[in-house]
Amino acid sequence: MAGHFPLVGLRVRTPRLELRLPDDDQLAALAELAAVGIHEPDTMPFVTPFTDAPPDVVARSVVQHHYRMRGELVPDKWVLPLTVLSGGTVVGTQDLEATEFAVTRQVGSGSWLGREHQGQGIGTEMRAAALHLAFAGLGAELARSESFDGNAASTGVSRKLGYADDGTAHHAVLGRRRTGHRFVLTRETWERHRSVDVTIDGLEPCLPLLGADDPPA
Length: 217
Prior knowledge:
Elements: E1 11-13, E2 17-20, H1 24-36, H2 55-72, E3 77-86, E4 89-99, H3 101-104, E5 106-113, H4 122-137, E6 142-148, H5 152-160, E7 164-173, E8 176-186, H6 187-193, E9 199-201
Parallel strand pairs: 5-6
Antiparallel strand pairs: 1-2, 1-9, 2-3, 3-4, 4-5, 6-8, 7-8
């Protein structure tokens, strides 16, 4: 399959984690992990409230998201939905996304962890892995992130990794106005704050698919 769609051979590894596009068994495990629960029932940390549904619907939406992102991926606009494994166990997902990356050299990210895997530093390590892929692998110049009021875990990860405040934005979520706090990280700041060892395998054949095969001088 990697000969036809090289992204299935991409591996991003840290001392504890592996990030990759999941095979069918891993995707099923990710769907089941989401169905068990990602956050407290009275909170909603996502702009798209996919967890506000019965467990079977949540699980199916995770599967559909992964298939849809693969099917819609083109160099001008892509979302890379990487599943995160720790010791071979699926623990969550880390997305990396970009629009017109060849021009903007800018990425965004999103993630979630199963509740049983939270509070162990995994969120920081997997974002660090995604940032290494973006800056060292693809040649990004800027990374952005956003988290809602009350999402201390996501905000804490951004702070640890050196992101700076970049204003706020309002979103309508389940009929309520939510305030998102935006963060931005430059390549120079990332280089000063990087502290996680990351290796990448299988990247070169993926570069044209991500608009990163002709990096700027």
